[in-house]
Amino acid sequence: MSQETHKETNLLDVLIVLARHKFFIIKLVFSITLLALIISLVWPHTYKSSSVFIPATQQRSLPGGIGGLLGSSMQLPMDFPQVNSEVILNILNSRELREQVIQEFNFQEIYGSTLMEELLLKIDQDIQVNENREGGFGFNPIFSIGLSFSSEEPTLSYRVNRFILEQLNRKIQEVNSENAREHLAILEERYLRNLSELEEAEDTLRAFQQKYGILEVEEQAKQIIEQIGELKAGSIQTEMQISVLRETVSDDNPELRNLIRTKEEFDRQFERLIRQSDQLAAEVPGNYPLLDLPDLGLNYLRLFREVEIQAKLLEALYPQYDSQKMVAQASRRGIQVIDPPVIPTYKDSPKRAYIVLGGMFFSIFLALTIVFFRNMIENGRQYNTENYRKLQELAGHMRFRKGSRPNNAASSDNDS
Q1: 381 has pLDDT over 50
Q2: How far apart are the C-alpha atoms of 163 and 360, rounded to whole Å?
Q3: Cβ atoms of residues 232 and 314 within 8 Å
Q4: What's the pLDDT at 59?
Q5: Beta bridge partners of 54
Q6: Helices marked H in 106-218 — which ranges?
Q7: In the chain, what is the straight-line distance between the N-terminal and C-terminal CA atoms, in Å?
Q8: Which of 212, 211, 193 is nearest to 201 (CA)?
Q9: CA distances from 187 to 62, 103, 194, 316, 320 (A)
Q10: In whole angstroms, what is the distance from residue 185 CA to residue 324 CA?
């Protein structure tokens, strides 16, 4: 018999088996499909309320370098650290927030349990948080976060979603406000000290001038003094940044170590210009009569230099201090909701069509399995095949009654 004839015979055998049990297959498929339809109809419907929001971004500016400080303008912004998107995810997944939701909406009654751990597990299944990251390879920042909550009541889903957003926004505002107040305290302490030191330097210079007269400082010395003031301002500004950053990172942080190196360079340049200004004061040309005495000229130049340094510090600190006061007093927005939650009008689950189709395909598979297994058993019983004997032996071993033994074993004993 050729291979084509053998395949055709096998196919005909399959069709004959299916035709012989067609009513059984139809009944089983219809019954399970109908059962799946009934289950999909009586299954409790759930409604999902979703929202999308933009997290607050963390910004932190660093000094532009010593070269930029030697120019005519002072640009030393120092923003306080804000809650970033990764911290927002931690807040959303925190136990505290979930317990607030459970207590606010009485989920003990909804879930039918008083155990907090069980309630947390159940509410975790209803809350979904989706991260939307920028495209590309490696670790990419989050540009938006999706939040959704599912329940059997549409209004409850909407209220829970809105409550989570409100609590999240309030928590972020608290953290940002606390960071702003801490940063303001650092700026305020340094600003008030600068005012006191500037007033003291001005009084000392005025007393010196009243005693020895008003002296004239040459242009080269003025330029050096201006540079000294800018370097001192940069050093103090960097020192405040180091103080703020040490509140949140360890000593091995690369950004912190870079700030420390920057401050050290500020201090080295400051000391170098101080020595240069002292040498210049001792070598002032003789066309200034009151500067013929080196000690007098040196003292005056140092007093004038101190006033200029404190004035430069005030010029750099006051705008930031004034701006930080407004930031600390203002109500900061923690998140910006771009897709607010709404009351859902269409059920999210169960997916009725999927349940019915799944039941139908399962019933077809089950019916075919039963039909071909029955056919194998009938053929085995008729022709006493090896597979049929093995099935009989397996069935005998599967019995739990005492004294029950497989037929093969009994026949072997009789033969012996």
Answers
A1: yes
A2: 41
A3: no
A4: 40
A5: 336
A6: 107-111, 116-126, 154-212
A7: 43
A8: 193
A9: 16, 41, 10, 11, 8
A10: 10
Average pLDDT of span 116-144:
81
Residue 149 has pLDDT above 90, yes or no: yes
Give the tens place of pLDDT for each residue, 210-241: 776 655 555 556 666 677 777 777 787 788 77
Query: What is the per-residue pLDDT across 11-29, written as a single tens digit (0 to 9) for each?
Result: 787 888 888 888 888 998 8
Residues 332-370 as b/e (b if ≥16 CB within 10 A, e otherwise) read bebbeeeeebeebeebbebebeebbeebbeebeeebbee
**Structure confidence by residue, pLDDT tens digits, 60-77:** 433 333 333 333 344 444
> What sign for the dihedral angle of Cα 253, 178, 172, 121?
positive
Do 368 and 21 meet the contact criterion of CB atoms below 8 Å apart?
no
Question: How far is it, in rounded angstroms, from Cα 18 to Cα 118?
Answer: 49
H or E element, residue 281: helix 254-282
Reference 252, options 260, 262, 240, 263; nearest CA is 260
Query: pLDDT tens digit string along 181-207?
Result: 777 777 778 778 888 887 888 888 778
Kindly give, in sequence order, each residue whose CB lies less than 8 Å from that of residue 371, ignoring residues fewer than 6 positions away.
17, 18, 21, 24, 25
SS3 148: strand
Residue 106 to residues 87, 101, 123, 167, 192, Cα–Cα distance (Å): 27, 8, 12, 17, 51
In DSSP terms, 132 is beta-bridged to: 144
Question: 263 near 238, Cβ under 8 Å?
Answer: yes
User: At CA 11, angle to CA 13 and CA 6, rounded to 5?
Assistant: 95
Q: What one-letter code names the amino acid at 99?
A: E
pLDDT higher than 70, residue 97: yes
CA distance 110 to 145: 27
> What's the pTM value of the predicted model, to 2 decimals?
0.53
Run of H or E residues at 222: helix 219-245
